[in-house]
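Please produce the structure of this protein holding S-adenosyl-L-homocysteine.
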Amino acid sequence: MSQRPGFPIKLTQTGAAGPSVKASVALSARSNPGTPLATVVPRSVSVSGLGLDSGAVRARMVRKLAEQGVQDARVLEAMGQVERHRFVESALVNQAYEDTSLPIGLGQTISKPNVVARMVELLCQDAPGKLGRVLEIGTGCGYQAAVLSHVATEVYSIERLRGLHEKARTNLRPFRLHNVHLIFGDGMLGYPKGAPYAGIISAAGGEAVPEAWLAQLAVGGRLIAPTITPAGHQALVVFLRTAQGFERQVLEAVHFVPLKSGVA
Ligand code: SAH
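Below is the modeled complex.
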């Protein structure tokens, strides 16, 4: 296990011009845009000023998310709170607040901030105040679970790769988020113990949404999952459970790592 990185000596400052709302949809259709949106402007940071400086960079990231169309104050607040640089490898800390996905080991990636914010916003849509219990499939490094912990009363997050489950545990420990429950297991089966959920969010994309997830969704709850559409590409799919059944909506194209069954 590598040591959690501190904040970098050289910070990356984001450029002034953020993409428009429309661009945010187009951006999420690409897995990782070749040209970073940011220009690198090194500046020095004293050890004692670490927290302060990472806060400033995060505030800039949040402003950009708002420019990109994220409107939910709860989500922007959560994105401003969670120190993303503590979830990535030391060598990548400089890119922690850029709008880019990053490798987290074992062939998996942490989604770019824009995609995390978009999905959490979809999850919170039409819910007054805090969400109740939510289930995340694909804990990865634990970043999104930390973001969710600010918008939901309880977060159950399940990961199929033991190495990442352990990494997330280590990453999250210092934050003392008592409402985050990490589970090692196959998320295809959901997690019946916490059901029914006010929200279910998958960080991995499958051919279809598993029946178990729909069964574990509360009436009034929302499920957000990257799924292969009949057209053959991956898109964000939203299910809203109503008293009558399910309403399904297909949104923008996305590129998530595959949903796999079993544990490893
Ligand atoms: N939310 C994560 C993103 C991790 S990438 C973060 O903030 O870092 C998606 C993760 O889904 C990977 O770690 C992958 O191992 C996991 N995954 C894929 N299929 C799964 C399954 N059936 N059950 C649980 N996790 C799964």
